[in-house]
What does this fold into?
Amino acid sequence: MHLSKLDVLQVRNLKSVQIACHPGANIIYGANGSGKTSLLESIYLLGRGRSFKHRDLRVVVNNNADELVVSARIERPTSGTSHQLGIKRTTKGRFEARLDGNALQSAVQLVEELPLQLIDAHSFTLLEGGALQRRQFLDWGVFHVEHEYRALWRRFQKALKQRNQLLRHGRMDEDSLRVWTAELVPLAEQVTQYRRRYLAELVSDVRDLASVFEGLGELELGYYQGWSDQLGLADVFEADRARDLAVGTTNHGAHKADIRIKVDGVAAADRLSRGQTKLLVYALKLAQATHYRKKVGQSCLFLLDDLPAELDYEHRAQVVSCLNDLDCQYFMTGVDKKDFELLVDGMACQMFHMEHGVASEG
It folds into this structure.
């Protein structure tokens, strides 16, 4: 799967950008503030329905415009099909998404059509940040390889929301709490089963990719399900009842799950340097894409923001080699064209120079 053509209107300083994309490497270079990251952000908007920089999409719309539009032609060589995907967002908060002219009902459908991975300066929070980032990483993988998981996850989120709303009420309906607790328990257990199975399958790919980057040590990935392995979740909820009522939220469950990542028996965040942390994040993302390709039979798309600033040349070359082995499309940004020339020497690619929000080939 790859984008053959990308059209961007009024995304930050990108008033009107149209580019023909290479099915493999696409390199975007230019001075700071020229629009490089905004171009990546546009692709991310198309695949996620949201920005990776701001929650409020109204600030992403160009200051002199009322709406932004991003559209692309998606080629699927494995099925021999081609599709037009597009989104529109207005400063008044209206959001539209269409596939081949037909309206999509939610951003979830965008994720299905354009699976993508982002690596930027904030990606190290996957290891050093809270459990939420690691749950999102895990759920991305399960979502894309297990179609049943999507509906299950939505039902789980609904039941959790309903239970928490009841817990927050001053005068609680005991019968309703009992009903939603009974609904939540099996859903949380099913979510846990999917996540455990996925992580067990992913471990070997993570270790293989980590071995490409020397010095990362012996990796261990363990799953914490969000409550004690020795207790059933129904028993945990019963024991937690007073505490849940006191704080007005559900303290244990699949929404508290985490991936415990260790290197040589020590938590990765404590064991690795900042540079090694970045390499492990690349290994995790590349491993996830490898697993996705094995399961689905196609590649996801990578967005790599300011690659030269994140990695030295040797490790950049290793990452590019891994991306090429995946046969995936990727977009890389950087300030200086020279940072990429040796990296892609003899390799088919497309280069774009960004200047004042305008993209030109070469």
